[in-house]
Amino acid sequence: MTLIVKIGGAAGIGGDALLDDLAALARRRDDLVLVHGGSDETTRLQQALGKPARFVTSPSGQQSRVCERDDLEAFLMATALVNRRLVEGLTARGLRPMGLSGADGGLVRGQRKSRVRAVQDGRQRVLRDQWTGRPERVDTELLERLQQGGLLPVLAPVCSDDSGDLFNVDGDRLAARLAQDTGAETLVILTNVPGLLEDPARPETLVAHVPSERMDDAAALAKGRMAKKILAAREALAGGVARVILADARSEHPLADALAGRGTVLGQPLADATNNAAPANAANAANAANAANAADTANAPDAPDAANAADAAALADPTSFDAGFSGHRGLTLVRGEGSHVWDANGRRYLDATSMFGVASLGHAHPALARALCDQSRRLVSCFASFANDQRASLLRRLTQLLAPLDRVFLCNSGTEAVEAAIKTARRVTGRHGVVALTGAFHGRTMGALSATWRRSHRETFEPLLDGFAHVRPGDIEALDAALHADVGLLLLEIVQGEGGVRALDPGYLRAARRMCRERGILFAVDEVQTGVGRTGDFCAYQGVAGPADATSDDSQARVPHIQHLDPDMVCLAKGLGGGVPIGALAFRSSQVPRQIGTHGSTFGGNPLACAAALAVLDTLERDGLTARTAEHGERLRRWLRQRLRPGAGSPVRDVRGLGLVIGVELRDAAAPVLKRLQQRGVLVLGAGPRVVRLLPPLTCSWADLQRLGEALVQEIMGADSSRAPAHDAPADISGEQVLS
Q: pTM for this structure?
């Protein structure tokens, strides 16, 4: 996840200690963006030019620089000088920084304010012909291309509007805009004070933490330049950034200190990153704990009451004993049925996540519940050295569905299936090299993590396994060069889920398959999220390509099916068990000879999980869910495109997907949309900083998909959604309007 670091423009900031710290961090992650100011350098330059800087105070109390045309030219020169110094310093430390302003390449667009209101001598006046403004949108694709090219963007606080006019923007607000649009979890603002101080003259009055709901208190404390930083922090937090850290750039290790929380943390605390409402939850937990203690004292012999009270305390703060490895969305879910789940307060939510695609049949499906109940009364555990009827039935069914793959290894998760694929490729080919794609997600265990692309998943655990390389999807020349004689495995997703719900081009996939076959490299597809009916075929690779010259409304954004891809290995998990942990690796017996002891799993292929998977496969077949998923998915995507109108002038760039894995790419950050949808009772996922991902259960009714679509359009389009054309919306058999 992108990290935005803002270096203040005050004198004394940007020395060797800070550059050393930045360089150390940039070597560990490739998603860093650096923003700098230039206020003191501008003031110095204006003084040298004989036109001293002038400052005014806005009606809201914010101090701003007067920026007429001559002032802007001085600002451009000064910030270019600061930018060049930073680039030189980082280059000398072995990095590849690229000095830019927000105006370069249209990286950051904004709105110029030619008139500025100011208070002078107690009276308001209007300053005209000003060249200042605010940043409004970031071209995150351009930013990602720079980062993927190994460059560290270093941005000066200059933007342009749609007409091409340049203007000065506040560096802190530019950093906040970048943090929002890139989906950054943390924004660090380094300045020349320790952080937010209750008394600016006394460093010991540092405020260590301000939760989001107490930002009014922070604004009341902020004085001078700090007021702008608090304003920027509020904008970042409101836009979905988890936290903003204000820290001292003059310390010996300024960035490391900031990321350790030495400064002021605004928003979600670092020490409790999974708890978005720590103060309230802590208070509730304390009250529940007091109740537990009281019950224990009053009814000492009655142990169950004390235990219930203790459970209530844990429920009041559900993350108190959690490992803290995952972010927490502020809900405690306690029940599910069909396409809905309920929280601990009894509120119902439409679940368009399927819990990351796991609940393929929805929640509490009768066939799955019955299979689990029946099998739990017979036999739950049976390791692979003993045969089992449920396992044997499942293996036979999978080989029928995945023919000509005729052998299957059963495990417990997608990452385990990927690990098995990596080990199998090394054993069979005798080569250690693995090629995966940028944007890929294959799991979090060490082998699968080595194939995963996102730096934020990988950096803490490096060095990972040797021999792994990543190439850009669609770049056949790069793939050709990467598939050298030391490579034994090409691993890819037909539709990249975490990578933004992006489909790989069919021609690229066929070329990749051909190269692998010619060079003796095993070709594996990761269908962990897309398999088991999710895409409208049992697996995404099994579909038939449509005509290349299709011109229907759906042809441009539809993810095409793949014809005759014929992989050597297929990884399955998630929806295969309908919510019960299970994974599978299918392969050819002609390529992978039996060799006892080369791999195994204690729980893999246990009768309970196999019974669950058989119930899922039976239900898919009996209810025709795979074909219905293809129909519902295409229908929903077509309707969303009609309502959202992706393209110029729309807040939506694209609507894409296959079956019921759908991505809606926004121009702005997706996190605020996810938050608003949750508040209105709809749960969806993100897929990168700007993509809303929909993974509803395959059993989801058309009426529920209709409600999902309406909610999504309203939260993205806002007031404009009521004016979007419905295009033919015929009534269904119940008389309700349905999406067409």
A: 0.64
